[in-house]
Amino acid sequence: MNILITAGGTSEKIDNVRSITNHSTGRLGKEIGDTFLAQGHHVTYVTTPQAVRPTSESNLTLIEIETTKDLESALLEQFGHQTFDGIIHSMAVSDFTTETTLSEDLFIEKLAAKLTKDGDLSDLANLTEELYHSLDEIGKTIQQEKKIPSGTDRLLLFLKKNPKIIAMLREQQPQAVLVGFKLLVGVSTEELVRVGQSILAKNRCDFVLANDLEEIHGDQHIGILIDKQGHTETAQTKNEIAKLIVKKVEEKWRNQ
Fold first, then answer.
1. What is the C-alpha separation between 65 and 251, in angstroms, rounded?
2. Average pLDDT of the chain?
3. Which of 64, 92, 158, 223 could link 9 by a cystine bridge, Cβ 3.0 to 4.6 Å?
């Protein structure tokens, strides 16, 4: 099988020396990659600089990215010249990316200038509309500094929503066995399964691995694999999760 795996966590730049990221280590993705490789499959592994990655082998192709935009471009480039039998989208993708950054003084100056040049703002509806319009314009301010000065008491960071990478995977690779992932924190098993099922249906996945951060400690990593029929199987460690995913993807691919 020709397998694509995304793993690790994307990072969104604030300036040339600072970024926003998450705590993903890529350890689960590495385990899944190693398990597919051990079964003789070819793996294209898309990951981030700080994440761990599978042991190098002749049938492993590594692609390194940083931002969500990088990820989108890398995937579209791969989809343009090869077809995948399975896609394991385990990467922790940033929901937001930086739009611009302003000091407190500059933000207040820009907002005041925009509001005072407009019409009557004594009406709450008009004021609300102008605030939304002003924030939209201020958010488009070009970030000039390569390194934002640290002299301001407050730094205002504007974030805009990233595209959902998982949403394009089925459209781009309709034949692939698609495995999505959902991480929640401190929820019941019932809620974890419910949310996992909604992600599966919304993104037309074949499977979703739902897990709770509070159930990940050392070697323990409890994950619930959900299929389109609503069946669930639970694994207790990263190794068990990897073996379960590889087994289910192989079975699904053979039976298509």
1. 30
2. 92
3. 92
pLDDT digit string, tens, across residues 192-238: 999 999 999 999 999 999 999 999 998 899 999 999 999 999 999 99
Examine the domain organization and report whether 147 and 175 are in the same domain.
no
Q: How many domains does the chain fold into?
A: 2
Domain range enclosing 145: 97-160
Please check whether residues 7 and 84 belong to one and the same domain: yes
82 and 172 inside one domain:
yes
87 shares a domain with 137: no
42 with 168, same domain: the answer is yes
Amino acid letter, 90: S
Summarize pLDDT for 18-56 with one digit per residue, the tens. 899 988 999 999 999 999 999 999 999 999 999 999 988
- Alpha-carbon Rg of the chain, whole angstroms? 22
Last residue of a domain, one of 112, 129, 160: 160
Residue by residue, DSSP assigns the chain as: -EEEEE-SB--EESSSS-EE------HHHHHHHHHHHHTT-EEEEEE-TTS--PPP-TTEEEEE--SHHHHHHHHHHHHTT---SEEEE--B--SEEEEEEEEHHHHHHHHHHHHHTSS---SHHHHHHHHHHHHHHHHT-----SS--S--S-EEEEEEEPP-HHHHHHHH-TTSEEEEEEEESS--HHHHHHHHHHHHHHTT-SEEEEEEEEEEETTEEEEEEEETTS-EEEEEEHHHHHHHHHHHHHHHHHH-
